[in-house]
Design a protein that fits this description.
The complex is a heterodimer of chains A (121) and B (146). Chain A is elongated and about 50 Å long. The longest helix of chain A has 27 residues. In chain A, a hairpin with a 7-residue loop joins strand 1 and strand 2. Chain A is an alpha+beta fold and 121 residues long. Chain A has three helices and five strands, in the order ββαββααβ. In chain A, helix 2 runs antiparallel to helix 3. In chain B, helix 3 packs parallel to helix 4. With 146 residues, chain B is of the alpha/beta class. Chain B contains five helices and five strands; from the N terminus they run αββαβαβαβα. The mean pLDDT of chain B is 92. In chain B, 43% of the residues lie in helices and 14% in strands. The chains are: A alpha+beta (121), B alpha/beta (146). At the A-B interface, strand 1, strand 2, helix 1 and strand 4 of A face helix 1, helix 3 and helix 4 of B.
Chain lengths: 121, 146
């Protein structure tokens, strides 16, 4: 599985969102890849100092991610309601539900304000 | 030279993940272990072992891969794995830290982890205590398709 991980710089435990290749690929080709820029950043985790490609969550970057995920959640919810109206297959619904759950998880991490960095690669 | 966009980097991560998964599967097949990649967004893991009886053999292969890429690594005694009727191998391309290791342990289906990146020492200890074998620092030069 792949991950998008949120890190704090105050020693708080990071939060990883595990996701399948299909969802990661969908994210990679969305506007998600256009917000912020990853830079090699030294960080202390598990008592080890390592360097990871991180995006600093400045208030501007954070707001841009939140606006993006709000928009994606709205768009996916609308699509799901259409799917329900059109009696689509359970497989299609399951994929849509998974996408929505992960988007909401990403959104909640950003809204919490607990994290200083995001790792997406 | 043109600067690589972040979208290119994300696609590269995806490709690295797929390439490593296929290489691990080829290693398992080479040793007679039937396995298949999982599809969609299956949370159980990336590679499913089709025969429960192959679990220990697959773990030995993952351990062998670890020794190959980390010849001086410290030996950690592995505990007996909690039985699962659906053994999977997890593929990692990002640094694995303790809390995430706990998530994988709690998943209950992962019996081995193959990573192109580092696995923190606390994670390694927790994984071995839970009977999960791992291989870290697998070189991209061995699994990259191009």
């Amino acid at each position: 599985m792949l991950n998008v991980t949120f890190y704090a710089d105050n020693g708080q435990i990071p939060h990883s969102i595990r996701m399948g290749e299909a969802f990661y690929e969908w994210l990679a080709t969305s506007d998600f890849a256009q917000v912020g820029r990853s830079k090699p950043t030294p960080i202390q985790i598990d008592g080890e100092l390592i360097e990871l490609p991180l995006i600093t969550l400045t208030s501007t970057t954070q707001s841009m991610f939140i606006a993006l995920f709000n928009e994606m959640v709205l768009s996916e919810t609308t699509a799901m309601l259409n799917d329900l109206d059109n009696n689509v297959t359970q497989d299609m619904l399951a994929s849509r539900t998974y996408r929505l759950k992960k988007l909401i998880e990403l959104l909640n991490c950003l809204k919490s304000g607990n994290f200083s960095y995001l790792q997406r690669e | 030279m043109e600067r690589e966009s972040d979208e290119d980097k994300l696609i590269a991560v995806l490709k690295r993940h797929r390439d490593l998964k296929r290489w691990v599967m080829s290693e398992l097949h080479r040793h007679g272990i039937d396995c298949q990649e999982t599809y969609g967004n299956d949370e159980k893991g990336d590679i499913k072992l089709l025969n429960l009886a192959d679990t220990q053999k697959a773990q030995d292969i993952i351990d062998g891969i670890h020794q190959r890429f980390n010849p001086t690594s410290q030996f950690i005694q592995q505990s007996q794995h909690n039985p699962t009727d659906s053994p999977h191998i997890e593929i990692k391309t990002q640094y694995l830290y303790g809390q995430e290791a706990m998530t994988l342990i709690a998943q209950g289906t992962v019996v081995g982890i193959a990573s192109a990146n580092a696995i923190s020492q606390p994670s390694q200890l927790k994984l071995k205590q839970s009977g999960i074998t791992f291989a870290e620092h697998i070189s991209a030069s061995i699994f990259s398709s191009s």
